[in-house]
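OP here, attaching both records as promised.
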Amino acid sequence: MLDYDAEAGTYDARRGGEPRAAAAADAVLSLVPDRTGRLLDVACGTGIVTRRLAAARPELRVTGVDLTDAMARRAAGRLPGAIVRGDSRALPFPDATFWAVTSVWLLHLFAGPADTRAVIAECARVLRPGGVYVTTVDKAAAHDVGSDIDAVLAPRPRRPAPDAADLVEACTEQESLTPAGQATFPGRGQGRSPRRTAADLRRGWFTLLPPGDPRAERFAARLALLPDQERPRPDPEFTLRAFRKPTTG
């Protein structure tokens, strides 16, 4: 996993900035009922999406929670008084506190299904009856847009996706949450170029190819042979799934 304390200063610029945040927030809110009074954004990062959720729905009382100190500090600058430090696997809130809980670009970070189950269980716990949980699924797969870069990277080692849609659905079913909708949004500004992808390989963004791994260098060398080294390929298309907590036990 990346060092998010070290990444905080450049995180937004490297991941599409405000256009991507706007697309994400619009898609999330399309799945959040208008009556929502309190919303928790789990793993809010720099707060770039969280702030837009709050601005778009002034009636919402939005809270963000993030484990990383540097990320939480940046988020607090955007939403003063609304950001809490905390682990998504042990949320620092009482049961049934929020009408909506979101986790955008979180579940894919974990090592395996045990963490996915723990996060979803916590999100369900703090969700009020009738409330909605919204999360991204299949993030890694969204980046495979069928480009020449994807063809080069196809043989790379992969781990089972901890945010796979079928795993997320199974975990939500364990918590008695039921499907309540789906939305997609473009990862604006996140189309990969060969040169940027090679740099990301060397920084350890590809989970099973840590910095300095000879395999990463071999993939980087193949990427260097592709044409249009600076031209971004198509943006990914991310998927959100929504799940509702029953009103009765």
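Record two, same layout:
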Amino acid sequence: MGGFLFGYDSAVINGAVTGIQKHFDVGNSETAFVVAIALLGSAAGAVAAGQLADRFGRVRTMVLAATLFAISGIGSMFPPSIGVLGLWRVVGGIAIGIASVIAPTYIAEVAPTVYRGRLASLQQLAIVLGITVSQLVNWALNQGAGGESTDELGGIQAWQWMLGVEAVPALIYGAMALTIPESPRFLIAARREKQARRVLEEIEGPSVDLDARVSEIRAVLDTSHKPRLKDLLGGRFGLLPIVWIGIGASVFQQFVGINVIFYYSSFLWQSVGIDESNSLLISLSTSTINVIGTVVAIVLVDRIGRKPLALAGSAGMAFALGLAAWAFSFRQGTGDSATLDNAHAVVALVAAHLFVLCFAFSWGVVVWVLLGEMFPNRIRALALSVAASAQWIANWAITVTFPDLSDWNLSATYVIYAAFALLSIPFVAFCIKETKGRALEDMG
């Protein structure tokens, strides 16, 4: 549910962008601000999440995220101004940032080693399901209101419903978080060993050697201390090399431009002459492809490993983004008058779907699995929060610049994304170490 809300809140703005522009009578810069401001909140939430998780526990931190999701949804539904909408988007962004850290941390800490990759992949599956459901709900509300997001449904404009419906899964998330056990590693760190033993037996089965498992976890924890930011420092460039690698993976995941598809696809397709209703339908289809690719990754991540998937995905994304750049080079006009002939529009649609597929079966899953696994126990939650924060800042940079870049030169924008996809290949080859089959206590 944390991943679902992560995806839902991130992508729901896609269907509401046009309605927000028309309702508040704002241009691309103001729209980009409202879309992207949530990502700065996400960066702050990601930084805070590690310390919250280590102080209050994983479950309580999830409940906090659920509460913030619900508050943000209701507040975003009835904003008196574009600025107030931005503030509520920040609240939702903080919740996304917390969820982006707490879910992979919790999954990595409760999952048996042999299943950890597949179970961590469920986080990404939940994210893409959240994205898909948000696009389905957006399209349904748009149709129910007559095909325009500024039309009313029950006295409230469709775009407002799009943002407000999020409160329902948020409440479900909070309720479900209260039914799951706390992380045994957190419990042992908090000297609640008896409870930790019960959780370990529940999640690893009655045959587990509890004394050995508790001793193994305690030995790692006892040789460390509560992580602080200074524990991440070291090496020639300020931070420990493993932290830089986590940051690098996070930045590359965003600089290929994936969230342009999920935040702006309705805006993107309208910019080449497709009407609002059909653009939302295309957004739904790309989200469906995203789910399919994620399922493929879940099947393969523990079989062939993290690195091979990432390398294959990088090559596929570079090709698809290059193809999209070529197709968009034939766009005529700008703004509402922009058009793309049928042949090149088809190529652009195919390229966008291929790009999403390649991302979904590789970087979409692999980065979150790696971030949950690659750091040593003593700094895992904090290092993951720093890497996730870098991811949100990179996401913000891509999101806030896309509307103006697309007005400048849509084709060149996709060339830039393709270049980052190409650069990610040597990064994976030389910087990423395979974590498949390794116990968390062996990470160093």
